[in-house]
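Agenda item 2: guanosine-5'-triphosphate complex prediction
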Amino acid sequence: MSISLISGILENDTNSISKAITLIENDKEISDSFFNTLHEKSSKAIRIGITGPPGAGKSTLTNELIDTCLANHLSVGVIAVDPTSPFSGGALLGDRVRMNKYLWDNRVFIRSMGSHGDLGGLARKTQEAGDVLAASGKDIVFFETVGVGQGEHDVIKTTDLTIVILVPESGDEIQLMKAGLIEIADLFVINKSDREGANRLSSLLKNILHTFSVRKEIEPPVFNTIANQSEGVVELYLGIQNQINTMKEMGLFDKRRLNRYRNRVSDLIRERLETKFWTKENKIFLDQTTLSLTAIKSAPIMIAKQLLEGSSHESI
Ligand SMILES: Nc1nc2c(ncn2[C@@H]2O[C@H](COP(=O)(O)OP(=O)(O)OP(=O)(O)O)[C@@H](O)[C@H]2O)c(=O)[nH]1
Ligand SMILES: [Mg+2]
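Presented output:
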């Protein structure tokens, strides 16, 4: 990793930011000192996760929030996680269109990161990309994901604040409970509030949250928006600021960041240990001892133990 790349990032040079994220995405060897420098410079940015079902209006709302941030003199980075799912056919194209809108504006940097069906390491990579954007001086970094899979949830868990977007048509209790949305949300948005059922959904949600708040330190507020008409966006923006301030006052903000830091350390350890563990020999051993279901004569724990104890090598 060259010194010019890091200084380019710190000077908010778009090419350097882009290049660094590509290196991270492609798992290229990057020096520890690079990450150390990023770390020193990346604590100021607020990281906000935006998640919700496919087509809920996440991108439309993020765009609105970008404009509101800019109007309030805040620069913005966006990492849009494309889960390469059948739902998100239009997502990449849409993201390209909005990237073009800000092409000449270095207060905004938008990037899609694909998981290419392999969710391993996605949360780490998006965090590192977030570090790059934070170190480039962005005040706010949005992480936009479709709230479907575990990998996307892992991404959301790495943020300072999580916004869950729902739409009237997704509006039954089961939907809300599904995928642990209530657990991860700090703030809810009912988008497409021009549609029927929006009020019903928001009262239902508020009721559920009230019951849940016994277990949560802060009851998540609920906002109604019509993102494609820019309605409710300023209120949401103020609500986000307010929520962050409350979290800071209660010490929850720092607590969450500390947890996130610890989780990053353990995730890195897990990833490195696993990479080191799966040598060619160990992979061959697993394949050979599990050639077919009928060939398997012992419980998984027996194979795992042999692998861990290294006795697998002798028996190949
Ligand atoms: N009626 C209505 N349509 C909206 C609203 N907000 C967004 N849309 C439309 O809903 C569609 C999907 O919006 P997106 O912003 O692409 O949704 P998304 O959640 O990013 O979608 P994926 O990334 O594909 O999951 C677009 O056609 C938007 O114009 C709204 O408040 N009301
Ligand atoms: Mg989208």
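Discussion summary: Strands lie at 46-52, 76-82, 108-114, 140-146, 161-166, 187-190, 222-224.
Owner for follow-up: CH.
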